[in-house]
Amino acid sequence: MIGIGRLGRLTLIGLPFAWLGLFFLVPLLIVLKISLAQSAIGIPPYTSLFFDDGSGLKIQVSLANFVLLVHDDLYLRAYLGALGNAALATALCLLFGYPIAHAIARAPKAWRHLLLFLVMLPFWTSFLIRVYAWIAILKPNGLLNQLLIATGLITAPLPLLYNAFSVELGLVYSYLPFMILPLYGSLSALDECLIEAAADLGARPVRAFLAVTLPLSLPGIAAGSLLVLIPAVGEFVIPDLLGGADTLMIGKVLWDEFFNNRDWPVASAVAVVLVAALAIPILFAQKFLEQERTA
Amino acid sequence: MTTAVVRARMALLEIVGASKWFGATLAVDDVSLSIECGELFALLGPSGCGKTTLLRMIAGLEIPDSGRILIDGVDITASPPYARPVNMMFQSYALFPHMDVAGNIAFGLRQEGMDRRHIAARVGEVLALVQMSDYGARRPRELSGGQRQRVALARALAKMPRLVLLDEPLAALDRKLRAETRIELIGIQERVGTTFLVVTHDQEEALGMATRIAVMNRGRIVQIGTPAEIYERPGSRFVADFVGEVNLFDGELTTGFNCLALTVAGFDRPIPLPSDTLLPEGAAATLALRPERLQLCRERPGGFAVAATVSSISYFGGASTVHLAAGEGRLLKARLPSADAGCLSRGTAVWASWLPDDGVVITR
Q: Pick from B97, B98, B112: which is nearest to A202 by CB?
């Protein structure tokens, strides 16, 4: 083997770590630091953790922001609202995404690339523009309502926009590809022979699916669900553009704290709790995937 | 009384004029085949000859475009795979990676709705049959190739099917294990008495294992017979060439001194043919001669003989194959005990001879 040298190896291993440290860990620590400060009028709009009162350097840490999150039930409701919306979106993405991924994985080879390309096609347009497009489709005199009235199915426009329905639709629409791609990955890796063996041994198609295909695609289901759930919980654009007054999601609360209230410490505290709340399911899922691999 | 007689004569598996197209390729071309109960039948042919497609049609994994497939006289041509009294051992074994060995074997039994106690008993039985009793709790990935092969066989036997289909059952094993496993496979087949249909591209495997062989080429069955019939009396050039080593002489029939002979380009004398040859003079024919039938001597023997020089010797332990160059660059293969081949070397001039009845005349 050609050695790349100790230095080369260190660089190779070190670079990704340096990248993660610089662009993930450092910003996270900055946010954590701000969350422990207090709001102040000035630039930046929060107090410093370190100050010198003449008798040496001192640290002033405040947990008031976190206490506020517990006391004011707005935050808890926003967290739960976001989690509920995101969980429902994940379930719906799985429900719609699984048959799509399964069909692509079992399609003739020549078709697969085209079908996968179609799944990824929306990414060619900005996410924001695609969410705006839904407004044009869903608004009272929008495309969908006009179509329904023209066909005589309804006489008055349906309230499709600025409610829970439109938020859920936006979430499912936006995150469906993130469910389909990992599912496709695990379903296309599944050896067709196993399904044939199940049929040969007497399993009808439904039984073969439940006993062989489904359990063997669990890693794909776990990966897809995480890829949908995690960004959907923190989603801000979709509830902001498609949601109504009753839409309470933590991403929107975070935005409001930062830009409307200019309360950086509280906003940072919200972010810290959000990251912690999301890190737990990731760790669980990773442990599960690890077990699947070694079992 | 009459029905009993009919049933006794009825073939276990009957394929009538089955054909299968893949796009513009005719993978299986009007194949008819009949297999009796208790046989260990081999489908032998080069890769792409349609043997696996034929096997998959019997399993129900492919539907023939025309023709019929019957098991015990019942037409199953259109039955789905899960409704056929047939189980298959896949070439890749297709063991379920998320189930342990016992779970894999129990899978088929569970589909039948068999109760737990009976399933456990049956799983134990087949595991004992393949000598894997201690491995019930292992996952397939924790097993060696040979062990996986046994589990796959046990799974195919668990439901006591009328017919077990084995797709290249020994191909994934290394050479030594393959020979051992082949003997074991025959032993297991004899013990359970189930009919086996084996697909293989390995002529040695087919000859050493099967009670009967069907040789396939380009989607067609070209010859059916016992291993000895296939080897000793090949019906066509293809069979003679594909099954075992062979020397082939193409020529034209002439009348010799007291028997028919074959005029072959590059040979100054016509080659005498077996006495039972029934072909008119002038007909084109091929003489197939197995290498082990050739005798090599330094002195010219009486009767027909060909002068040749040794061009190379391949040593295979007990026997060696001697490659000879005869007149006009014609190559001959002779197989002799290595002890005899030892006194030959490259460039040695020899006389190759054989008895007229050792050859087989082929017209196709």
A: B112
